[in-house]
Amino acid sequence: MPDHSVVSCYRHGTPFSSTMNLSGINITEVVERTKALLQNDADASPALKASIELILLVVVLLAQRLGLNSQNSSIPPSKDSNRKKSSSKPSDKKAGVQIGPHV
After folding, report:
1. Based on CB atoms within 10 Å of each CB, which residue in 31, 62, 63, 96 is the most buried?
2. How far apart are CA 27 and CA 49, in angstroms?
């Protein structure tokens, strides 16, 4: 099968430097297994193989984006929908104007 530049980056291990898991599914393992099956399939056309490899690349890239948050990317905390919001302790003061001695 000819080497396609679009998918060659993940063939050489770049995005697979660590294991990606999502909901208990090892995405890295599934993609590698699918690539191995695709390589061994003599009946699949080169166009079909290239299309499936491109889809696998998109899956890997999307899975990598799921792990990003404001702690490990350039996403500002205000735009991070999954950030832990700090809970403030309720005040002992009543709401509204405070009545007391004026200085």
Report:
1. 31
2. 19
